[in-house]
Amino acid sequence: MITMERRLLRMGNNRSGVFWLGLVIGLAAAGAVSALVIDENAYPAVYLRYALGSLLILYLPGEVLIRCLFPQRELGEVERAALDVVTSMVVVAIMALILNFTPWGIKLLPITLALSIFISFFALLTIIRK
Fold first, then answer.
1. Which residues make Cβ contacts (< 8 Å) with residue 59, sequence separation at least 6?
2. Most confidently modeled of 8-22, 35-49, 112-126?
3. Which terminus of the chain is less hemmed in, N or C, by CB atoms within 10 Å?
4. How confident is the model at residue 77 (pLDDT cuts 50, 70, 90)?
5. Whole-number Å distance between alpha carbons of 118 and 48
6. Confidence category of residue 1, pLDDT binned at 50, 70, 90
7. Average pLDDT of the residues in 91-110
8. Rounded to the nearest 10 degrees, what angle do helices 108-129 and 4-13 cross at?
């Protein structure tokens, strides 16, 4: 049985895994910040909000979940990309359904925070599993 310390040491030696982790968490943070900070009427900056928000909603949740479920390259790139998008839609729909029954409701801040926490948790879990 591999202890947690050995896994973390092995994770430190895996530079591509650490780069992927930083990239995913950085994109999730950038998407969350752009969604919360950039106003809807800010003309040129709103396109950045749309691009990063689309990544946050349509790609990143499925990417981290599929990489966690299939850590090896068992899937081709086309199958993985299709599964990423479809899984992201399912994850966002389930999160919205769950948040609907909480006191916070379906608003920008709870959805953004829930997605960011989901993405960060599964990205860390993926790196630990490798």
1. 84, 85, 88
2. 112-126
3. N
4. confident
5. 22
6. very low
7. 94
8. 90
pTM over 0.85: no
- The token pair at 99 is 């948040």
* 48 CB burial (10 A radius; 0-12, 13-18, 19+): middle
119's CB contacts (< 8 A; 6+ apart) are 24, 25, 28, 56, 60, 61, 64
Q: What are the structure tokens assigned to 125, written together?
A: 């879990």
pLDDT at position 4? 54
Mean pLDDT of the residues in the chain: 87
Q: Which residues contact 62 (CB under 8 A, 6 or more apart)?
A: 83, 84, 85, 86, 87, 88, 89, 90, 91
Which one-letter DSSP state was computed for residue 59?
T
Distance CA 57, CA 39 (A): 18
The long-range contacts involving 69-78, CB below 8 angstroms and separated by at least 24 positions, are 71/126, 71/129, 71/130
Report which of 33, 64, 76 is spatially closest to residue 130, judged by C-alpha positions. 64
